[in-house]
Design goal:
The complex is a heterodimer of chains A (348) and B (333). Chain A is α/β, with parallel strands linked by helices and 348 residues long. Chain A contains 10 helices and 12 strands. In chain A, strands 6-7-8-3-9-10-12-11 form an 8-stranded mixed sheet, sandwiched between helices. In chain A, strands 2-1-4-5 form a 4-stranded antiparallel sheet, covered by helices on one side. Chain B has 12 helices and 12 strands. Chain B has an 8-stranded mixed sheet, with helices on both faces. The chains are: A alpha/beta (348), B alpha/beta (333).
Chain lengths: 348, 333
């Protein structure tokens, strides 16, 4: 049962943004990143990083919203850049997205019903009005909303949490295979966050939808995902079982992130600020991208970038400190992911 | 700066309404609290709970359609609401300073950091020679962990975290007795967030100012605040020492808020707070939380609970803890 069937795959994706009219500036947002999302078993994978880490760029490339500079995005064995119109339409239907801002996604002049009716019409999901209505009610109930309290209203009449859940309902209606959720709770109040995260879990458990949860918040990533990919400046710093990555980080960048989490417990205080003074001389540009901020840097880190090493069965890290544990040489990052079957069920 | 007593800031029964076409929105509805010298109070609440309106009102910087309808704000013994505009301006920065939410928008983009800082000081009648100002500003920047050279830079040359440090340096420039920080890290990454909050903590300790940190992140509050106030729908529903709030929350809203916090110590089912915040245009009678409260009784729908102080300077506004006594199991539930 452990065999992983790749559904969506990105191979050696690089994305360079070019800015400036006369003096061109190049910004490497993603550097040869590879990733696979399996159809079975459906999993929740978190992609975490700070702003500028490339996490949103990766999401946009995966969704086909942004063409990569190099590399391919492959869906069901086909390069999405070479898909026919109808194939791409199926791809668009089966890979859904939930964006950060639950207000920007709406047209304020239309009732919220509109965002639910449009996909039904576009993809011919229902034969008649009655069926369409049933489909909408069903989807709303799946995400824990009462149709009587949501339908017929305008976006501004609903709370941020309700608006975001309608977006989830819209995605669910299309019976997607994958949902890419880009910071879905960062603009939602704390008391409603939990509800939305729990809904994502339900979609994964009961509907078999694989979820890519993109966030800067390691705490929610830890709660919803089985595996996590920590990105730094467009490269994978550390990846694998969340339990391992968050509770015993190996990469100095992950450690910095984890140490910075403000724990909601007055007895778990931050240590004194341990940030390393940045290098004044600058970097060669050929070595490890974290060199200038790293507290354990060595000379060679600035010369050649480290590969991914595998200190545990379900974790890889891009740091020379773990060189002895051996290079991770599989082309599929998911080979270092903990399968759902080995995770203890959630308590409470 | 004359401190007449040990209470730099006292707020009594503050009422702030936003006047809209549909009627007044009671954004702050009868809030009272005191700040002791040098203490750090965290004011938490969801969007729309009134926490930022309180921040602006304390600076008497609220704008139309907001209006202070009632209550008093005593800053070092002076009622801020009885002062003229000019008198209020003279208190800002020198006695009560603000670290704003978006440092991006609060700095003047066409002025060097040095000139902006000198501007504020000169407006309060501080006169120094050019060299003295330069030394003074370099020292302030050093205290917030910035290089003295930042004084010569323009805001666009600084990162978000550096800009926020500049605003902290400005806020402490005249040793105010009260600092109000309104979500100072809301646009910053977690690593920078920690640096900024620790910088604020250091600066606060150095000058001994009483500080209010406003926000919705319970984690930041646990790290920064010595005392916490919980806001819900314009009212202060609970206030007490930070440890008490986390370990022994009294108000059902605080209890649900704390139990819904995700952590990294073991996965668990996540539960939010069912229902939505009531409209402040037409708040429900009785306790504002009764529409979502799992422990609400008939009394909660009629009678507004007052903030009652029990042991450990821990106060809550909830009928569960007041006479007429509820049945045994409800009290212990």
């Amino acid at each position: 049962m452990n065999e992983v069937i790749p559904l969506l795959e990105c191979r050696d994706i690089s994305k360079t943004f070019v800015s400036g009219t006369f003096k061109k500036r190049y910004n490497l947002a993603l550097d040869k990143t590879s990733l696979t999302i399996a159809e079975f078993p459906p999993a929740i994978t978190a992609i975490a990083g700070e702003s500028g880490s490339g996490k949103t760029t990766l999401a946009r490339v995966l969704l086909g919203l942004l063409p990569p500079t190099e590399g391919q995005v492959i869906y069901k064995g086909q390069d999405i850049a070479k898909m026919s119109r109808s194939e791409f339409r199926d791809f668009r239907r089966e890979v859904q997205v939930i964006f950060q801002d639950p207000f920007e996604s709406y047209n304020p002049f239309y009732k919220v019903d509109h965002v639910l009716e449009t996909p039904i019409r576009k993809y011919g999901l229902a034969k008649n009005k009655k069926e369409a209505k049933e489909l909408i009610i069903d989807a709303l109930e799946t995400v824990g909303l009462r149709p009587s309290e949501t339908l017929g209203r305008y976006p501004h009449q609903l709370s941020g949490g309700q608006r975001q859940r309608i977006m989830v309902a819209r995605a669910v209606m299309l019976r997607p295979k994958i949902i890419v959720a880009d910071e879905p709770v960062s603009m939602v109040d704390a008391s409603l966050r939990a509800t939305i995260l729990e809904t994502l879990r339900t979609l994964n458990d009961e509907f078999g939808i694989s979820i890519l949860y993109i966030t800067h918040d390691l705490t929610t990533a830890y709660q919803v995902a089985e595996n996590i990919i920590v990105l730094y400046k467009g490269t994978i710093a550390e990846a694998g079982d969340v339990e391992k990555v968050i509770n015993s980080p190996t990469h100095p960048y992950t450690r910095l992130l984890v140490d910075s989490i403000p724990q909601p417990d007055p007895d778990l205080q931050w240590g004194s600020d341990s940030s390393v003074s940045r290098l004044t001389g600058g970097m060669s540009g050929h070595g490890c991208v974290f060199y200038d901020r790293c507290p354990i840097r060595e000379d060679r880190c600035d010369e050649t970038p480290p590969s991914l090493y595998q200190p545990d069965k379900y974790r890889v890290t891009r740091c020379y400190a773990y060189e002895e544990s051996g290079t991770f040489d599989s082309p599929k990052l998911t080979d270092a992911f903990i399968p759902a079957s080995e995770i203890a069920p959630i308590q409470g | 700066m004359t401190t007449t007593n040990d209470v730099p800031l006292r707020v009594e029964n503050l009422e702030v309404h936003y006047h809209t076409r549909k009627g007044p929105v009671k954004a702050v509805d009868g809030v009272s609290f005191e700040l002791q010298k040098g203490e750090r109070l965290g004011l938490v609440g969801e969007s729309g709970s009134g926490k930022s309106t309180i921040a602006l009102s304390l600076m008497v910087a609220h704008k139309e359609p907001a209006k202070i309808e009632g209550g008093k704000i005593f800053l070092n013994g002076t009622d801020m609401l009885s002062l003229s505009d000019a008198e209020v301006r003279s208190k800002r920065l020198s006695e009560i300073a603000m670290v704003p939410q978006g440092a991006l928008n609060s700095l003047n983009p066409v002025m060097r950091v040095r000139d902006q800082m000198i501007d504020g000081l000169k407006a309060h009648g501080v006169s120094k020679s050019k060299e003295e100002f330069a030394d003074f500003i370099a020292e302030l920047l050093r205290r917030v962990g910035l290089d003295g050279g930042v004084a010569e830079m323009y805001p666009h040359e600084l990162s978000g975290g550096m800009k926020q440090r500049v605003t902290i340096a400005m806020s402490i420039s005249m040793n105010p007795s009260v600092i109000i920080a309104d979500e100072p890290t809301s646009a910053l990454d977690v690593v920078v967030q920690r640096q900024i909050v620790q910088t604020l903590l250091e600066a606060q300790k150095q000058i001994g100012a009483a500080t209010i940190l406003i926000g919705h992140d319970m984690g930041l509050m646990a790290q920064f605040a010595t005392r916490m106030g919980i806001m819900y729908a314009g009212r202060l529903v609970e206030i007490g020492p930070t440890r008490e709030i986390f370990n022994n929350p009294k108000h059902p809203y605080t209890q649900l808020l704390i139990s819904s916090l995700p952590n990294t110590q073991g996965k668990r089912r996540l539960s939010g707070i069912p229902g939505i915040t009531p409209s402040l245009l037409n708040p429900p009678p009785g306790c504002v939380f009764h529409t979502r409260c799992p422990k609400a009784t008939e009394r909660c729908k009629i009678e507004l609970p007052n903030l009652i102080t029990e042991e450990n300077e821990h106060s809550q506004a909830c009928h569960l803890y007041t006479e007429p006594a509820k049945s045994e199991e409800e009290v212990t539930a």
